[in-house]
Amino acid sequence: MLGAHIACRLQMEGYEVTCIHHKSSKALFENISKSYSISASAFSWVQADILDMDTLLPVFSGMDVVVHCAALVSYRKQDSDLLYETNVSGTRNCCNAAWKVRVSQFVYMSSIAALGKDVHSDFITEETPWVDSSRLTEYSKTKYYAELEVWRIAEEGLPVSILNPGVVIGAGDGKSGSNAIFGQVAKGLRFYPIGTTGFVGIEDVAMAALSVIKNSITGNRYLLVSENLTYKELLMEVAKCMGKPAPKIRLGGVLLFVSTLIAKACEMLSIPFPFPSQGLVSTSASFKYKNSNPLLLPDFQYTPVQKSVQTAVSGLKGLA
Asked: CB 3.0 to 4.6 Å from 266: which of 38, 140, 271, 272, for a disulfide?
């Protein structure tokens, strides 16, 4: 989803964009590109696998910039191995291939999940130190370890940039990653998590990616968050825009404790349960974010989350 928006933004600026796809339909990309009034045929398409570096080398060869967006977002215990394989090994292969063919810049799309979590600070920044904890999700760990791969290759001389967007709000499929929020509300979500986190519009992330490429900004990581909101505030806005009932049951206290126990038991017994245990724990935490390394884009202002939600809902209607 995010890669499609970045590709469209780059194409609009006159860049020649080659997109990698892996044994999957390009239907979602085509629908997103239509929202930019761009045909998918305006891009070059190649099939490659980030888990196979040999397929990446001929694709990266001759490229000036590589933007690595491919990742798995999951809080399901059974996806743990796949998370490490996709997010860590896949990133390692991309880094090594980019270094081997000597691209001019490697841009890695990370996440606020890869940032340290300091419960004693008012805000988390790019400089907040990472401390391993049993409360961290496997997804968070894999994004952090993936960043280590990027910094490793930077030490070898590859110019790199890392972007750490908050929970991304934008047009997509309504099913995967953060876009699943819209699908859940559409089905009549009754519960809301008690936590707080940072959110950002997908168009803002695409503009940030364009900026680091256009201005050859390398050697740092940049936190991208428009607003810090509670999940309740976000879900109420999503429900309002979709014309659906807002969730009314607070998923905290005893209900959260019991739900987490049931989720863990179901995971051990391989029984389906609607909420992954790690997801329950993650969304019950409250963290606020503030960037300490601003991109200093001229006249740039973050899009209010309310407007990003409205745009996303309109996009979802277009995908229906």
From this structure: 271
Question: Could you list the residue range(s) of the whole structural domain that residue 42 is in?
Answer: 2-185+198-228+288-319
> Could you give the CA distance from residue 42 to residue 11 in angstroms, rounded to a whole number?
8
Looking at 84-200, list the stretches that DSSP marks H as alpha helix, in order from N- to C-terminal side: 90-100, 138-155, 180-186
pLDDT tens digit sequence for 52-95: 999 999 999 999 999 999 999 988 888 899 999 999 999 999 99
The verdict on residue 206 lying in a domain is yes
Looking at residue 101, what DSSP letter applies?
T
Residue 48 domain-assigned (yes or no): yes
pTM for the full predicted model: 0.92
25 confidence band (pLDDT: 50, 70, 90): low
Please list the residues that pair with 107 across neighbouring strands: 67, 161
- What's the token pair of residue 41? 């045929």
pLDDT tens per residue across span 255-303: 999 999 998 898 888 887 777 888 888 899 999 999 877 766 666 789 9
Q: How far apart are CA 138 and CA 192, in angstroms?
A: 22
Q: How many CB atoms lie within 10 A of CB 206?
A: 23
For 133, other C-beta atoms within 10 Å of its C-beta total 11
DSSP state of 286: B
Is 135 in contact with 88 (CB distance < 8 Å)?
no
Q: Which position has the token pair 């979709």?
A: 242
Read off the DSSP letter of residue 77. G
